[in-house]
Sequence to fold (191 residues):
Amino acid sequence: MRWLCLLAAMSVAACGQGEDVSAVAPGNINAVKIASVNGRGSCGIRDAWLVSEVAGIRLSRPTRLSREAMVALDRWVSQGAIPAVGSVGGGLESMTVAAGYACRTRNSRPGGRLSEHARGNAIDISAFRLRDGTRLTVLDDWNSRNRDVMRRLWRSACGPFGTVLGPNADAHHRDHFHFDVAEYRSGSYCR
Ligand SMILES: [Zn+2]
Fold:
């Protein structure tokens, strides 16, 4: 536990109080350290955080993520998503989380490989809310007049995340972006 407290450099919460210790994560991340998530079989999150905001951008609901995924999300939002939206609609305000932790296989196919969602290493984003109230959804805006913004958002995640999937990947992703921190030998996989 101690090393987590050290890593959480901006921590204002008490550290070293055992399993229930909660801490504010580094940087602009608004998150609380939670107990390890133990799911069926190989499902679960060892270094689990309940994330509600990154880089000043609110998530539609607090989302359970691994530390690695949380840090990647913060990096993408601060260095990718916010600049990708720029001043369009007054700027990015919040994001709709379609999925966080879930003990399931990839695309929920029976007998398939375990999804990165099952380890807290993935997050699905389905919509972006701008400050003027505009709501951009992956489903409706991937090919709308807002397509440039949507494609910048999608492309900018490639790097912070190891795997980035959107409507061009397959029918499963026509209504959301999938981001995870799985690493491929050849680098990021983005489609
Ligand atoms: Zn996903």
User: Anything to note?
Assistant: Confidence is low (pLDDT under 50) at residues 1-24. The chain has one domain: 2-190. The pocket of zinc ion is lined by residues 99, 117, 122, 124, 178 (CB under 6 Å).
